[in-house]
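Private note to self, pasted from the team thread so I don't lose it. Backbone tokens:
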């Protein structure tokens, strides 16, 4: 891609499945989520309940992988899981 005097390489992103930001499960979005066990109000970095991700200094922990006893040191949407 050439813009003015500059060039940029463009890559098409891979399709990813729908993922709910309320419960983090795949196949639906938060508006259609039926769970009562959502993560609303929790940090999406470490799943802590007393802060938000912007100020989080804790280690990254993906809650679904942690719950299933898999390696959980990655963020939601990463290729690790």
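Design output:
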């Amino acid at each position: 891609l050439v813009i003015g005097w500059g060039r940029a390489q463009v890559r098409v992103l891979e399709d990813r499945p729908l993922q709910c930001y309320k419960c983090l499960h795949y196949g639906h979005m938060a508006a259609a989520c039926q769970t009562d066990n959502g993560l609303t109000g929790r940090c999406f970095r470490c799943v802590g309940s007393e802060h938000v991700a912007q100020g989080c200094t804790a280690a990254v922990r993906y809650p679904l992988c942690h719950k299933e006893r898999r390696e959980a040191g990655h963020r939601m949407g990463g290729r690790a899981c």
